[in-house]
Specification:
Distance between the termini of chain B: 61 Å
Number of domains of chain A: 2
Number of helices of chain B: 6
Helix content of chain B: 40-55%
Strand order of the largest sheet of chain B: 1-2
Shape of chain B: rod-shaped
Oligomer: heterodimer
Order of helices and strands of chain B: HHEHHHHE
Structural class of chain A: mainly alpha
Radius of gyration of chain A: 25 Å
Number of strands of chain B: 2
Strand content of chain B: under 5%
Helix content of chain A: over 70%
Largest sheet of chain A: none
Chain lengths: 118, 168
């Protein structure tokens, strides 16, 4: 093997070692800090708890547009889907039946409101 | 330092039958510094690779956070979250649940955070919201529930909320 080829191989080898070190530093040792997370990145448990809070407030005031506005905090997706997912998570996580029920009530109210709006 | 540019007798003899004789260049008896093997290319490769790896990890494909906690929310979103907690407390009067919900926001001084937000909202004209925030702040300060409407059933927290996990 020629000297030139050997040098090239070692160069590529050190390049790869350097890249691995750079990735380890950038991903593990000092990753990009995420300071101002948006609510749509919240864990499912927190999103469910937020939806539950909105449902609790809806139970008290019966204001569906306000509930929809509060729910939009969790993201731009369809609100009905958000509450449905929250309800499924609440059921799967053995939330008290009272909590699941008020989430179900909110889901029903949102569905009715959607139908009436169409 | 002395250089011998002419082939000596021994060399001449050795090369007498060498067909490459005509191509043989005069040799320097002392190795010049420029011919010493250099390994800077290894360091260059290492640094270049490190920079490329870092650029990929920070710019092209940075760590994406999923399953974050409310404590990592931006200030405005934290305020919204805190306000909803206070409003629910004002409606349900469930102090334990409000307390556990506030804990996930990770405020160093929740009473101060609630009080400051109440003042801001009051100044903005959101009286009901400010009242709810102040009510929860007072309850926290006293360490016990304040008198709130009890028409809505209360709920006991049963969930231990999980920690976030970064996914690269």
């Amino acid at each position: 093997m020629g000297r030139r080829a050997r040098r090239l191989i070692f160069f590529v080898l050190t390049l790869l070692i350097g890249a691995a070190a750079g990735l380890a530093y950038g991903w593990v040792a000092n990753p990009v800090e995420f300071k101002d997370a948006s609510p749509d990145t919240l864990g499912m448990a927190y999103q469910t708890d937020y939806a539950l809070m909105v449902a609790e407030l809806y139970q008290a005031d019966g204001d569906i547009p306000l509930a929809a506005s509060r729910l939009s905090y969790l993201g731009e997706g369809p609100l009905l889907d958000l509450v449905n997912v929250a309800m499924i998570h609440a059921e799967a996580s053995n939330y008290p039946s009272g909590d699941v029920q008020i989430l179900r009530d909110l889901t029903g109210a949102l569905a009715t409101s959607k139908r009436e709006g169409q | 330092m002395r250089y011998n540019w002419e082939p000596n007798e021994d060399t001449r003899e050795t090369r007498a039958g060498d067909s490459r004789d005509a191509h043989v260049q005069p040799m320097c008896t002392h190795d010049a510094p420029a011919h010493k093997p250099r390994h800077w290319y290894l360091l260059t490769g290492l640094i270049l690779g490190f920079l490329l790896g870092l650029a990929y990890a920070w710019l092209i494909n940075p760590v994406v956070y999923a399953n974050t906690v409310p404590a990592s929310l931006g200030p405005d979103n934290r305020d919204t979250y805190r306000s909803i907690i206070a409003q629910v407390y004002a409606v349900t009067g469930d102090f334990e649940r409000a307390e556990s919900r506030l804990a996930v926001l990770g405020d160093e001084d929740p009473v101060h955070a609630l009080g400051a937000q109440a003042q801001r909202r009051m100044a903005e004209g959101a009286v009901e919201e400010a009242r709810a925030l102040a009510l929860l702040a007072s309850a926290l300060q006293l360490g016990e529930p304040m008198s709130v409407p009890s028409s809505v059933p209360t709920f006991v927290p049963t969930q231990i909320l999980p920690l976030p996990s970064p996914t690269p």
